[in-house]
Amino acid sequence: MEHRNYRDREGGGRPRYHSQPKADKMEMIFGLRPILEALHAGKTLEKVYLLKGTKHSISQEITDLAKAAGTPVSLVPNEKLDQLTRKNHQGAVAFLSAISYSPLDEIVASLFEKGKDPLLLILDRITDVRNFGAIARNAECMGVDAIVVPTRGAAQINADALKTSAGALNLIPVCREANLKDTLHYLKNSGIRVVACTEKADDTLTDTTVDLTGPIAVMMGSEEDGISPEYLKRADVRVKIPMAGQIQSLNVSVASGIILYEALRQRQQA
């Protein structure tokens, strides 16, 4: 059987158009002025949807403020906005985030100042909400200091994510980064090794040469196609989880638990 990247076979890949958050799953704001006021007030927004083709000063201000805050903005047709809400949205809908995101550079600096070796978890395009919640639960239990996600192509952190995480998302910092390539460069320059968990690796997790002590950032790939090639080639270490069955593929949340446990085990014995 072909050896493939860790993915969620049950989930069927990335969520499709209809899988966007609904009003009963995440608090919604609609209308240009309310969204603008929320941004000015420093509210953390998960995502902003604006009517495509609109040329309005308020729309532009919303776009500028959202991008400055690291909030993804999608330009969509009116039909999409009508799917999100039946109310008078005025061409603008946004969802409040269930958590507040943390600055990665501040977390890294704080960890080093405390004399601690950072253990970070980078999630490349994990889009399934329940997978994300389960991964966050694994991360908190295994002592991960922060989870790093991309601004675009990441699971929406809504009520389902919080529930699946068993409260872990209220305990572990989540950092939303606009460009993971730049983030990997920053981490490596900070003395943090990037460890990619991928079936494309030659080394297995049980090899004595695989060192998960010291400052590291474990990187997990998407449910559909694993870690992006451009990120994979920037990893300092590539490692795969040994398997004896025929399926040769693990749910990404299970895979994250296995490698994070091994990191914890090695660090406790170091």
From TrEMBL:
Q: Where is the composition biased (Basic and acidic residues)?
A: 1-13
Q: Which SUPFAM superfamilies match?
A: alpha/beta knot (SSF75217), L30e-like (SSF55315)
> What name has this protein been given in UniProt?
23S rRNA (Guanosine(2251)-2'-O)-methyltransferase RlmB
Q: Which domain of life is it from?
A: Bacteria
- Protein's UniProt keywords contain ATP-binding: no
Q: Which organism is it from?
A: Rufibacter roseus
Q: Which Pfam families match?
A: SpoU_methylase (PF00588), SpoU_sub_bind (PF08032)
Q: Which InterPro entries match?
A: Alpha/beta_knot_MTases, Ribosomal_eL30-like_sf, rRNA_MeTrfase_TrmH, SpoU_MeTrfase, SpoU_subst-bd, tRNA_m1G_MTases_N
Q: Residue ranges of region Disordered?
A: 1-20
Under CDD domains, the record lists: SpoU-like_RlmB
Where in the numbering of this chain does the RNA 2-O ribose methyltransferase substrate binding domain appear?
28-102
The UniProt keyword set, sorted, is: Methyltransferase, Transferase
